[in-house]
Amino acid sequence: xxxxxxxxxxxxxxxxxxxxxxxxxxxxxxxxxxxxxxxxxxxxxxxxxxxxxxxxxxxxxxxxxxxxxxxxxxxxxxxxxxxxxxxxxxxxxxxxxxxxxxxxxxxxxxxxxxxxxxxxxxxxxxxxxxxxxxxxxxxxxxxxxxxxxxxxxxxxxxxxxxxxxxxxxxxxxxxxxxxxxxxxxxxxxxxxxxxxxxxxxxxxxxxxxxxxxxxxxxxxxxxxxxxxxxxxxxxxxxxxxxx
Length: 243
What we know:
Blueprint: H1 3-23, H2 61-73, H3 75-90, H4 101-129, E1 131-132, H5 143-155, E2 156-159, E3 164-167, H6 169-185, H7 193-216, H8 224-228
Antiparallel strand pairs: 1-2, 2-3
Helix pairs in contact: 1-3, 1-7, 2-3, 2-4, 3-4, 4-6, 5-7, 6-7
């Protein structure tokens, strides 16, 4: 099994980690206020009950920094790196790193660093492009609309005060920044840009898996994710996709 396949499994493992605290207390919360919405019932799919007048709020710098540190260095990133390193160890990938405790530590550090570089790139480029790449739960209901929302959010971001959705270069570039850094930074010399690109493809799929986990397996407002990842569980309207 190749390294990029390991990264894909790492993403799935991270999603499973998100599910553990969520499954214990996942319940569907609905919002219906016909008076405030002129007779229209709204049932957001977000695991946190949102206000009746759902409006986008740009995150503060403090919120973005907290979310960055949670995404890059938080418990789920550590668990994901450990899971991927374990699989790398079982399949001896890369074989040049051998086996044993030292080899596992090297594989763990590699996976953790890839995720860290990717997350740092995403947040840094988002600042440059004036985008908000934090994940927001869908206010829609139904499995397929919510699944579509999670997938689309992988390639898009919010922009400006109204939070309109745009195609996000930071979100697309970030996974490849992490894997290319690994290929040319610490992987064996036989790896090249083609390996980095393939690994980046699987990392991007891992982002999609993480968004699906945020959407469906979030948990209660009192969970660790709700306390640390402040914006991920808040529903936000979709005012359109015009830049």
